[in-house]
Amino acid sequence: MTHFVQHVAMLTAATTTKAKPNYLPTLIMLALFGGVWYFFLRPRRQAMKKQMSEQKSYEVGDEVVTIGGLIGVVVDIETDRVTIRTGVSATSTEMVFLKQAIKSRAPQPVVAEPATESPEGDEKVDGAEGQ
């Protein structure tokens, strides 16, 4: 019996050698999580913060765009609601939206500069004069 116990002890000692732990898979998983956070979650959080701060800065008279694409002028602001007037004064409509439904301020329309004529009005610009 002692011979059997010695044999089992010798086999156990041979199979329980300590191997160095491999940290590479753990580091790869942490790097992947960090990359996903940095490239996907972080920009989304920054955009949400920007939108939240913009929602707090609306004032009566601002022209805004809703998430549905409706453009109107802010008439009244309550705690969590905004009243917007759309249309011209004779047929204007007032609607109430949650502040979260306001996407942004309306872009300012691009105004084309009036064309200026040269002092010599009958000169041709493309060089085809006198033909």
Q: What's the total helix number?
A: 2
- Work out the helicity level: 25-40%
| Structure classification | alpha+beta
The CATH architecture designation of the domain at 58-108 is Roll
Number of strands: 5
Describe, in plain words, how this protein is organized in 3D.
- The protein has 131 residues and is an alpha+beta fold.
- Among the domains are: 23-57; 58-108, Roll (SH3 type barrels).
- Helix content is 36%, strand content 21%.
- It has two helices and five strands; from the N terminus they run H-H-E-E-E-E-E.
- The chain has helices spanning 2-15, 24-56; strands at residues 63-66, 71-77, 81-86, 93-98, 102-105.
- A five-stranded antiparallel β-sheet has the order 4-3-2-1-5.
- It is elongated, with a radius of gyration of 36 Å.
Outline the secondary-structure elements.
Layout lengths: L1 H14 L8 H33 L6 E4 L4 E7 L3 E6 L6 E6 L3 E4 L26
Antiparallel strand pairs: 1-2, 1-5, 2-3, 3-4
Observed structural traits:
131 residues, alpha+beta, SH3 type barrels, elongated
Would you summarize the structure shown here?
The protein has 131 residues and is an alpha+beta fold.
